[in-house]
Design a protein that fits this description.
There is one protein chain. The chain has about 140 residues and is mostly beta strands. The protein has one domain (about 20-140): Calycin beta-barrel core domain (Lipocalin). Helix content is about 0%, strand content about 65%. It is built from no helices and ten strands. Strands 1-2-3-4-5-6-7-8-9-10 form a ten-stranded antiparallel β-barrel. Strand 7 (about 100-105) and strand 8 (about 110-120) form a beta hairpin. It is globular and about 40 Å long.
Length: about 140
């Protein structure tokens, strides 16, 4: 079996910097799902070890307005987050390596979040306990 290596692996938050747009789905607690339209801004610090995230999504009945401030030391990530639609805040911890960020979100809402770079796309997956929805899956492209 042949496995093709990616052209380049993300090694710092600089690789995520920019404006991204795309679509996805939100899985509601009721079991129904809805289409989402999203826009995200990723702002990296000059040294590449800090990242600001602003993610805004809307469906027919929900809005998601997520903000995060992340710091990277080696592969370890820590930081804070807030979700403005649900008035929730907390802390973030996780890892970054091989084109993927894996986060555990703690606070008013408990969740996991992954951000994976695949070519010119960014895949975001969020799984949460409560707060109106179970999961969010997005595919964003740099705009």
């Amino acid at each position: 079996m042949l496995v093709q290596a990616p052209a380049s692996l993300a090694t710092s938050f600089q690789d995520l910097a920019g404006t991204w747009r795309g679509v996805g789905r939100v899985q509601l607690l009721s079991g129904q799902s809805e289409a989402l339209s999203c826009k995200a801004y990723f702002t990296a610090k000059e040294d590449g070890n800090g990242l600001g995230i602003a993610l805004a999504c809307a469906s027919a009945s929900n809005k998601i307005d997520l903000r995060a401030a992340l710091a990277q030391t080696g592969e370890a990530i820590s930081g804070s987050w807030e979700e403005r639609s649900f008035n929730s805040t907390g802390s973030v911890a996780g890892t970054f390596g091989n084109d993927r960020i894996d986060l555990t979100i703690d606070g008013t809402i408990k969740a996991t979040m992954s951000i994976t770079l695949e070519g010119k796309s960014q895949l975001i997956s969020i799984a949460t306990e409560g707060q109106g929805f179970r999961s969010v899956d997005l595919e964003l492209e740099r705009s």
